[in-house]
């Protein structure tokens, strides 16, 4: 993890306008040196100006102490340094003030103007002082030395601190920009991680729903038929032993088929869709993503039901006592495995609902092969006795219609269900023939 701007802000704990105590101590030390320097130079200033020495020392000390506010008011420090330049004091204050001014985030024209004023002031004062020294005979060098000394001292006291301040200010701004970029990148990465977690959670939720729907389709129909046959077996066990034997055989066959389908599904889920011979992994360790891939692989390999088994499905319901009329229109052809499985499951769930809610009602199953789509419809008449449900008392979880609608919508189809005017119930679905598996 990078050091964020928030960490940088929290590290500030200095007094007044200082960000850190270290800066306050540094500025206090520089101000103390400036006070000593200006106070010492105030003695000669007092002699030259003809004022009491204590006044010159006090003036110098007050002027030098301005350096303590260099971080808050750098312009004021430079202006004071320029003002005391004729008194030949405040050299440390001038150098440090120019450096601080150049390092601040101020417009370049202000920095250039004040640096120029300081340079010109130093140039004039140096020129006058050196010329006076030569006139008094203290310097025996030629006249060329006066401008040379003035320019050299002026540039020496102005250019280095300004250039160093500009460099430090640019570097500081660069570091702040990089820190802001790092903070922004860290926030983006955190946002991406949260979105990825949300997508993963959504995918897990979708996969749980899909697996639950698949389990419902596999178990509900078979078990419902078994319950219906068991109820019929109980009713005819004493009156018609032969029919009871046939019903018992049907119950056993359906139970074995349900177990076979469950084993196939659980086997695919446990293997995670891996290569043959791979060690199987429990579903809890594989996770929802592996379960999704495994289940889709099962569909692609044709392990799920298809429309070719529709006749057998209708026959099982007829064997359970339902009067079923199956009609197929159009040219029979094959579709993508997922299309055929969805169409089969819609008919299967609709027949299961008839067993649950309209026992004994005549049912019509219609399948139409069209040019670009396949349509199916399961419609039942009203039950012989209005309001009657299955004699076996089959429970209903209310998920069948929802599951059918989700299956059809996932393939871009249309699903409609509802009661008919005659008092029965109708389930209709249309699935595009080109839907991808």
From TrEMBL:
Coiled-coil boundaries: 168-206
Under InterPro entries, the record lists: HATPase_C_sf (IPR036890), Sensor_HK_TwoCompSys (IPR050482), Sig_transdc_His_kin_sub3_dim/P (IPR011712)
> GO CC: one term?
membrane
Q: What is this protein called?
A: histidine kinase
Give the transmembrane region(s): 51-69, 75-98, 110-128, 148-170
Question: Organism classification, top ranks?
Answer: Bacteria, Bacillati, Actinomycetota, Actinomycetes, Kitasatosporales
Q: Which organism is it from?
A: Streptomyces griseoviridis
Please state what class of enzyme this protein is. Answer: transferase
What is the E.C. number? 2.7.13.3
